[in-house]
Amino acid sequence: MAKRVTIGEVAADAGVSAATVSRVLNGGAVTEETASRVWAAVSRLDYTPNALTRSVFAGRSSTIGVVMRDLSSPFFLDLIRGIDDVAAANGSLVMFANTFRQRDHETALIQMMDEHRVRGLIVTTGDQTDARIRRMAEGGTPCVVVARRFVDPPAGLHTIRLDDAAAGALMAGHLAGRGRTSIGVVTSGDRPAQRERVAGLRRGLAEHGLALPGEAEASAETEREAERAVVALLDGARGRGMPLDAIVCTTGRLTVAVHTALTGRGLTIPDDIAFLTTDDFPWAAALGLTVITQPSYEMGRRAAELVVDNPGGSADVVFEPDLVPRGSTDRGGRPGSR
């Protein structure tokens, strides 16, 4: 195996010090004649700079740190692709970490990104990580929080999010337009985005003279919990004499679990009950699922651009949702009959 050429060998070949070679490689001030000698030596020896060494001299690496909460959501795949495309175009690698929704793990991973002096940080974590993110931004590392607001962000800390209230209103208008009058909703945890989607749904239904009572809302973190939530919503509504004719899921990662729970009860979609969910994915079209979409690829690109450009102040970029109508919300013949 060929021995890797060292910076010392480049310095010896060019007749300069190793520190001078580092200055040239990192764009530092040297004479044109010295720079030419160094670059000629780099070419002759086929020298590949050590990225870690370069980051030591620069005080920061060229890597963009990305900490995602849960890859089981289809939203994150295109988000990561958008981040990676911008990073690659700007000479950066992406250091990616998935926290599997473990809160302590989220904090530890962000600390690790800080210790590696990443060029910038993009996260979808919960608010327990806010103190560490704030310190990073205040220390000069551009940070981007995706999918939620950040309270009183300092300069260099940006947010990318969906207009979640508008997403809920889209759901309400679509279901009311399809003649659905008794709606249940499955949410995921107590994240602000989830609360805002439900609030938008509730306000939108009210504009059509329809109610979304508290007992028609259920929260779930896991697929098993989602299945239990669906059963509880169906049985509870029937017990109140108001069988559900539509179920809304406000998070893409629980789509399959909610759909499975409905069909597992012997319900036919959309004849017995309509189903509307969040985030598109390849099988959604095959299953005929009506979905609320968010432009996750564009959101990822914008997040990475904020890291690369690092504009002054604190940007809050809000994207608009869209609704893709498919057969799962068509007007059925026997809503709530089972």
From TrEMBL:
PROSITE patterns: HTH_LACI_1 (PS00356), HTH_LACI_2 (PS50932). It holds the Pfam family LacI. Keywords: DNA-binding, Repressor, Transcription, Transcription regulation. It comes from the Bacteria. Residues 5-58 form the HTH lacI-type domain. CDD domains: HTH_LacI, PBP1_LacI_sugar_binding-like. The keyword GTP-binding does not apply. GO terms for molecular function: DNA-binding transcription factor activity; transcription cis-regulatory region binding. This is LacI family transcriptional regulator. The lineage of its organism: Bacteria, Bacillati, Actinomycetota, Actinomycetes, Frankiales.
